[in-house]
Amino acid sequence: MYWNKKAETLKPGELKKLQDKRLKQVTEYVYRNSRFYREKFKELGLKPEDIKGVKDLDKLPLTKKTDLRDNYPYGLFCTELENIVRVHASSGTTGKPTVVGYTGNDIELWTEVMARSIMATGATQKDVLHVAYGYGLFTGGLGLHYGGERVGCTVIPASGGNSARQLLLMQDLGSTVLACTPSYAVYLAEYAEGEGIDPIEDLSLRVGIFGAEPWSEPMRKRVEDALDLKAYDIYGLSEIVGPGVAQECEQQCGAHIWSDYFLPEVIDPKTGEQLGQGEEGELVLTTLTKEGIPLLRYRTGDRTILEYDKCSCGRYHPRMIKVRGRTDDMLIIRGVNVFPSQIEHVLLKIPEVGSHYILVVERKGPLDLLTVKVEVTQDIISDKVRDLIGLEKRIKSSISHALGVNVGVELVEPFTLERSRGKAVRIKDLRN
Amino acid sequence: MIKQLSVFLENEPGRLVKVTRILEDGGIDIRALTVAETADFGILRLIVNDPDKAHGILKRNSVAVASDSVIGVEVDDKPGGLRAIAEILADGEVNIEYVYAFVTKSHKKAFVVLRVDDRERAVKVLDSNNIRLVEQDEVSEI
Question: What global pTM score does this model have?
Answer without folding.
Answer: 0.85
